[in-house]
Structure formats: structure tokens, C-alpha cells
């Protein structure tokens, strides 16, 4: 795992900083995940070099967060975020420090980090610097605030939600004092930007232990200050690798309020459209899907609806074949495949265009998709003239 490209890039950056006389280590999630034997996505480096010093050591750098001391260093093996050791200044609004101070001591940098498991540093030779007992807590499966938990959550309320999502990702417990502090400070979560809350929930939904995470939301009483309802029992069997399925399932559990709740979390239009489609497919599944349902939904939407019906143990008419096979065998798969256009209908009818064109075209489409009418110009013309227009 530590042989992969990201680690190699980080090692090479550390080596170059060391050669220039600085100290540099790997910190944060990558160290935690390496100890756990989990793949890490970002391998972050911390250093006692000031941002300008980091920039002078490397040919290619990008200022991605220079005010917080972060420089992106580009080396042949990849790119690495290098952050100068820092302490956070005063927190006045439960979310961001007013300012950060760069420091030369790793210990001070590790002290500002949220949990002991995230406050371990690793040298290039593989040895650890672990002032707060992070490895022991990882071993025991415990999430514990670094220092005084009350103070740490007062500084930044998002940390409470981070604790919850780590418990969903790792299946860890939250240590008693840390949990108590969460209960005491739960109301301050309302200070946090909805986008940041969403980003944590995105990660919670795809955790291997979602039930555990929602349980912690309940136990900490964070549920009382978040939009929507969360009940751990609803999530016992839920398991996905796709955060969108998490939001769609969460929406199912909100009943009629789903739209406003998801709006509170600032879901994008695309995400909301997917959720809406899944909810519609789930509703339609009660009486079994028609050809039109197979036609108008994606395979993923239908599969998701089936999965939710199973989770909720709903009484539904399941498809008899694979969704893929049914969709493949539909007479047509896309609206554009319909052989006639609105202009044909206008010509055949001798009428002026108007809303009727769209309605008639929809009727033709449904008849074709349902297999009642062939996708053939002459047959459609006959059908329109003899059956459809006559009926009107
Ligand atoms: P992930 O695997 O999701 O990236 P992570 O622990 O790496 O988890 P990041 O948001 O990438 O989380 O942050 C990197 C590190 O920065 C953390 O491990 C932690 O040491 C520190 N950190 C991040 N957010 C906070 C915070 N709100 N308060 C204190 N320290 C934090
Ligand atoms: Mg990370």
C-alpha cells in the first residue's frame, strides 16, 4: 500500500525537503489509514519549512492554500500537498480560526488536529511520532479528541460530524468524554455551512458501518440540530459505495418532506433529479413497472428502487427478468428513435401546430414503447388518423 505512487511522491518530496535541511513528515488520514491497512486517497506532508522555503526547494509548485500554509508540490511521481507546521489562532464562530500561525514544532502542529488517530506523523523511514496515543486508540477502535474535547468542539463544531462519519467509515466507538462533549455542544453544529455538513454526510453514506454512524448521531443528539430525520434502525442493512444512493435512501426516509430536506443540504440539481427519479420508480414499483417505466428510467434508477424496496421490505411487484434485459428488449430505447416527428403529425392532420402536437407525439411514443404500435411511418399514420384523432 505504501508502495503506491502517492506514497512514493510523498517520500520523494520529504527527501528533497530533508536534503535542503528541513524536517518533513507524512500526517493525517494517510498515516491513520496505513496503520489500519486501508488505502489512503491523499498522502499529505507537513514540514517546518515556511511556504516560501517550500517553494524555493521545488521547481514546480502551485499555491493552493498559501494563507493556510499549503503548497502543492509537483514531482515526477505525482503531486503532494505540503503544509507548513501551524497552530490555529482564535476561533470566534465555532468554525474557522481567525488566522493561523506558522510554527517550527511538529508537536504544536499535531496538537491542533481533531482526533488522536489523525494526529500521528510518520517519518520517511516508517517510524511514528505519536504524542497523543493515536496508535493505541486505533488499535482499540476509539475516536478520541486531542486534548480537551469540549474546547476542541467549541473551536470547530464540524469536528463532531467528522467523529460521526469516522465511526461510520471505521466502525469505531467514540470515547466517553468525547461523546459527552458532543452532547454538550451538539447545538453549535448549526454554525457550520451546509456544504461542509453535506461533504461529511457524503462520506458517511458510503461507510462500511453506516448504522454505527447514525447511532452516534442519535447518541450525541446531533440529530436534533440537523435537517431531516435520522433513525439508526432504518440503516441496519444499508450498504453502498455511491453517495447518491445514500441521499436517495435518506430521501425515502423523509416522506413528503424530502425535497425541502435535501434542499437544506444544497444538493445539486443533478443529484436532486436522480433522487426524484428513484422515488418515482419506487412508487411505480408497487403495481409493477410498465414498459414506459423501463423506458423512462435509467438502469441505475430502477436497480436503486428495487434495492430500497428490499431494504424497506415493501410489498412490490418485482421484475421477473434482469432490468438490463427488459430495457434492451424494449421496441425503442430513446425518444429520438421514434420514426415520426411533430411536423409529420401537423402535415397528416391538416391542423395548425399547438400543444396537441406534443400530446399526440407522447401518445404515439407510449403506444410504440408498449408494443401496441410498430415504429413504422405508415402504421403510425394509420393509427393517428383512424384511432387517435377519431377518439378525440
Ligand atoms: P479523509 O480520509 O476523509 O481525507 P482525513 O482525516 O484525511 O480523512 P482531511 O479533511 O483530509 O481528513 O484532513 C486531513 C487532516 O487534517 C486530518 O487527518 C486531521 O489531522 C486534520 N483536520 C482536518 N479537519 C480538521 C478539523 N476540522 N479540525 C482539526 N483537524 C482537522
Ligand atoms: Mg484526507
What descriptors fit this protein?
392 residues; alpha+beta; Hydrophobic Seed Protein; Methane Monooxygenase Hydroxylase, Chain G, domain 1; seven-stranded mixed sheet; 11 strands; binds adenosine-5'-triphosphate; binds magnesium ion
Structural features, described:
With 392 residues, the protein is α+β, with helices and mostly antiparallel strands. The chain has four domains: 1-132, Beta Polymerase, domain 2, CATH 3.30.460.10; 141-229, Hydrophobic Seed Protein (Orthogonal Bundle); 237-330, Up-down Bundle (Methane Monooxygenase Hydroxylase, Chain G, domain 1), CATH 1.20.58; 335-391, Serum Albumin, Chain A, Domain 1 (Orthogonal Bundle), CATH 1.10.246. 49% of the residues lie in helices and 10% in strands. The protein contains 19 helices and eleven strands. The protein has a seven-stranded mixed beta sheet with strand order 3-4-5-2-1-8-9. A hairpin with a 2-residue loop joins strand 4 (70-75) and strand 5 (78-84). The longest helix is centred in the C-terminal third of the chain and has 16 residues, at 269-284. The mean pLDDT is 95. The structure holds adenosine-5'-triphosphate and magnesium ion. Magnesium ion binds at residues 28-29, 42.
Amino acid at each position: 500500500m505504501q508502495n503506491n505512487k502517492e506514497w512514493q511522491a510523498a517520500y520523494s518530496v520529504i527527501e528533497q525537503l530533508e536534503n535542503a535541511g528541513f524536517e518533513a513528515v507524512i500526517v493525517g488520514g494517510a498515516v491513520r489509514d496505513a496503520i489500519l491497512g486501508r488505502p489512503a486517497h491523499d498522502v499529505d506532508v507537513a514540514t517546518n519549512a515556511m511556504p516560501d522555503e517550500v517553494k524555493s526547494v521545488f521547481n514546480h509548485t502551485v499555491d493552493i492554500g498559501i494563507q493556510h500554509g499549503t503548497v502543492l508540490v509537483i514531482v515526477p511521481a505525482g503531486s503532494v500537498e505540503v503544509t507548513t507546521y501551524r497552530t490555529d489562532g482564535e476561533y470566534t464562530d465555532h468554525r474557522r480560526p481567525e488566522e493561523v500561525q506558522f510554527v517550527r514544532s511538529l508537536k504544536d502542529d499535531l496538537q491542533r488536529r481533531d482526533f488522536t488517530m489523525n494526529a500521528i506523523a510518520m517519518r520517511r523511514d516508517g517510524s511514528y511520532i505519536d504524542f497523543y496515543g493515536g496508535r493505541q486508540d486505533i488499535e482499540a477502535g476509539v475516536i478520541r479528541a486531542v486534548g480537551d474535547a469540549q474546547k476542541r468542539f467549541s473551536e470547530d463544531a464540524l469536528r463532531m460530524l467528522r467523529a460521526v462519519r469516522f465511526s461510520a467509515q471505521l466502525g469505531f466507538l467514540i470515547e466517553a468524554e468525547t461523546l459527552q462533549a458532543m452532547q454538550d455542544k451538539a447545538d453549535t453544529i448549526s454554525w457550520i455551512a451546509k456544504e461542509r455538513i453535506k461533504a461529511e454526510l457524503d462520506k458517511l453514506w458510503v461507510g462500511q458501518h453506516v448504522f454505527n454512524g447514525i447511532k452516534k448521531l442519535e447518541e450525541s443528539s446531533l440529530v436534533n440540530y440537523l435537517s431531516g430525520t435520522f433513525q439508526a434502525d432504518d440503516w441496519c442493512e444499508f450498504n453502498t459505495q455511491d453517495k447518491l444512493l445514500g441521499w436517495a435512501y435518506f430521501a425515502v426516509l423523509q416522506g413528503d418532506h424530502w425535497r425541502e430536506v435535501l434542499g437544506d443540504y444544497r444538493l445539486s440539481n443533478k443529484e436532486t433529479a436522480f433522487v426524484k427519479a428513484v422515488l418515482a420508480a419506487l412508487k411505480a414499483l408497487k403495481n409493477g413497472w410498465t414498459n414506459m417505466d423501463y423506458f423512462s428510467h435509467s438502469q441505475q434508477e430502477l436497480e436503486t428502487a428495487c434495492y430500497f424496496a428490499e431494504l424497506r421490505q415493501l410489498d412490490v411487484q418485482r421484475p421477473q427478468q434482469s432490468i438490463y434485459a427488459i430495457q434492451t428488449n424494449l421496441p425503442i430505447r430513446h425518444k429520438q428513435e421514434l420514426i415520426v416527428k411533430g411536423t409529420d403529425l401537423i402535415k397528416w392532420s391538416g391542423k395548425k401546430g399547438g400543444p396537441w402536437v406534443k400530446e399526440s407525439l407522447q401518445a404515439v411514443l407510449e403506444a410504440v414503447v408498449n408494443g401496441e404500435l410498430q415504429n413504422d411511418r405508415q402504421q403510425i399514420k394509420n393509427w393517428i388518423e383512424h384511432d387517435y384523432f377519431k377518439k378525440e
